[in-house]
Amino acid sequence: MIRLPGRRYVVTGVLSSSSIAWHIARELQLAGADVLLTGHGRSRRITELAAADLPRRAEVLDLDATQPGDFGALAAAVEQRWPALDGAVHAIAGAPPGALGGAFLTTPPESAELAFRTSAASLHALVTALAPLLRRGAGGGSVVGLDFDGSRAWPGYDWMGVAKAALESVCRYLALYLGPQGTRVNLVATGPVDTVSGRGVSTFDALDARWAQDAPLGWDSATAAADVVPGPVLFLLSGLARGITGEVLHADGGMRAAGMGLPAPASAAAGAAPRGGEAR
Q1: Which residues pair with 145 in a beta bridge?
Q2: Taking the model in full, what pTM does it have?
Q3: What is the number of domains present in the chain?
Q4: What are the tens digits of pLDDT across the range 14-58?
Q5: 87-90 and 8-11 strand pairing
Q6: CA 46, 48, 53, 56: dihedral to nearest 10 degrees?
Q7: For residue 190, which of 156, 215, 162 has the smallest C-alpha distance?
Q8: Going edge to edge, which strands form the sheet with 142-148?
Q9: Alpha carbons 39 and 115: distance in angstroms, whole number
Q10: 37 beta partners
Q11: Is 113 contained in some domain?
Q12: Measuring CA to CA, which residue among 27, 22, 55, 54 is closest to residue 38?
């Protein structure tokens, strides 16, 4: 079990106690770390209720990822509470309805740009704002973002998929430029997870069924937020990953490795006709 006594982390993207970020915050606290959460607007009250459900109630600071000035304000608020920061979790993503659901060819440019700013550029804004605090943290600090395979096109994921590809590139460039101060930046790419944001993708059920059928280790979208994702995130936040930066760690049941899904059972394969001929 990873232990992080006395470490301090900012966790963004907690909406409810079913959020992936909430389960990460919970595991951080159970590992001995202190946690600050972020929220904004009308949803902040929901985040505060979720914060009260953690093993130790966490304070919620303001952060609207669509407002550039909020990132500097967040850094100032963190510094008022802590002299240094050991890490942060970027669990921010969002896109207008017109940027998802199969309307890729007709998505207005402003909707595509908003998906990029919210889901990819926000990683740059968060990390650069917190960089001075991270420099003072253990080993230069570590940032982990949540991802979904940005190397392939997924029906219905559309401009969010483009934003995830951009997120992976932003991660690599942040790793390049912040490495000299010791700060590590990595991503954890998951399969489909049954959360409010996950259900915002119109093809969620189809993606979920594909993972359940083809992931070598299997996949349960209902339990992944609690049972699959937090462990890899804590690993990357910890000193165990001190030599890792700019990476995308796939915690997706092995789906990334299964280009054509699972092989047919041996009995079925044995009875199949040879390619280009008849069974004999």
Answers
A1: 90, 187
A2: 0.92
A3: 1
A4: 999 999 999 999 999 999 999 999 999 889 999 999 999 999 999
A5: parallel
A6: 160
A7: 215
A8: 59-62, 34-39, 8-11, 87-90, 142-148, 184-190, 248-251
A9: 18
A10: 11, 60
A11: yes
A12: 22
